[in-house]
Amino acid sequence: MSRLEAAQERRAEAGVPGSGPPQASDVLLEVRNLRTYFHVMDGTVRAVDGVDFKINRGGTLGLVGESGCGKSVTAHAIMRLIETPPGEIAEGEIWFDGRDLLTLSDEEMREIRGGDIAMIFQEPMTSLNPVFTVGDQISEAVRLHQKVSAREARDRAIESLRLVGLSAPERRVRQYPHELSGGMRQRVLIAMALSCSPKLLIADEPTTALDVTIQAQILELINDVQAQTGTALLLITHDLAVVAETVQTLAVMYAGRIVETGSVEEVLLNPRMPYTQGLLNSIPGEKKRGKALSAIEGVVPSPFRMPPGCKFQPRCPHQWERCTMEPDLLEVGRSERRARCWLQAPGEIERRRTYDLAAAATVRDVIG
């Protein structure tokens, strides 16, 4: 019995609250206490260490944070693409459309992957197979999940390319990836992901390696397609400017954990976690013209030597002795607004007031 199976059995026997599918019918994806570890020669890396979030049908969620904080591993765990060994989904539940993905067989998961859940991977330059035409690669996914003829699959591929704004789609389906530019290849990946009309689209750094003009076009395309099709969107990025224009809700990750959640306006205009404030402060703004760029001091801690208590404590300008204990995600106002920081605990009014002044100054400098 695997560690995950043992954890699921213990949870069921104990009747842990929250086990079972989401009660609300409008919830499409709910991730609960997800833990994904990698066992390597130097020890165990807790890449994702107790992550919780949910996405409603047709909703949008942005997952942001520095490189190495666990964003892409979270997406790969949802898709059940963690290579075992050395990887392992050690604990948690991933409820999608009423089914826990972690309890499905490999065959059942293959039917969902690419069909009900589609993913746009990083690096459009390398995500397409160079020896097959664009049309063949899109048609293969369509035939696998839609059970249609080769002609119907080719027609669906052409329509998908037209949907993402590629000119002359009848000609593009006969071309190979090396004949297309980076922006065109990224559109092909989006077309491939949308070809089977998925219920959930996971976009992992969809604008990586693209110039600024093409980035803006790709983000606008994702917004338009998501609005037209009603597909839910999980957008993974390290760029706060990207999520500000693309998603409704936001989850900030650090060291394998979510440290702040809320609507995108609440998180960006009123950050409740010093790490989120640090990310905002590192964005160049008009009021910072001619000044040195700000940066969060220090580096992300080694996964083999995580600090005790709050994982951001060694880099936090507001840390004090209480931060040697690990905080939970504390409610800040309404239930969907949370921050993993002792500053938001009851009784810390004076410390919170000092932080609020610094956070407000950051927002003014960046957003105005």
Number of strands: 12
Strand content range: 15-25%
The low-confidence parts are none
Q: Which strand order does the major sheet show?
A: 6-7-8-3-9-10-12-11
How large is the radius of gyration?
Answer: 22 Å
How does the helix and strand content classify structurally?
A: alpha/beta
| SSE sequence, one letter per element | HEEEHEEHEHHHHEHEHEEHHEEH
Notable characteristics:
368 residues, 12 strands, alpha/beta, four-stranded antiparallel β-sheet
Architecture overview:
The structure is a single chain. The chain has 12 helices and 12 strands. The strands form 2 sheets. Strands 6-7-8-3-9-10-12-11 form an 8-stranded mixed beta sheet, with helices on both faces. It has a 4-stranded antiparallel beta sheet with strand order 2-1-4-5. It is globular and about 70 Å long. It has helices at residues 3-14, 71-78, 106-112, 134-146, 150-163, 169-172, 182-194, 212-229, 240-246, 264-269, 274-281, 349-366, and strands at 27-40, 43-56, 60-64, 87-96, 99-100, 117-120, 200-204, 232-237, 249-254, 257-263, 330-332, 334-339. Helices cover 35% and strands 22% of the residues. A hairpin with a 2-residue loop joins strand 1 and strand 2. With 368 residues, it is of the alpha/beta class.
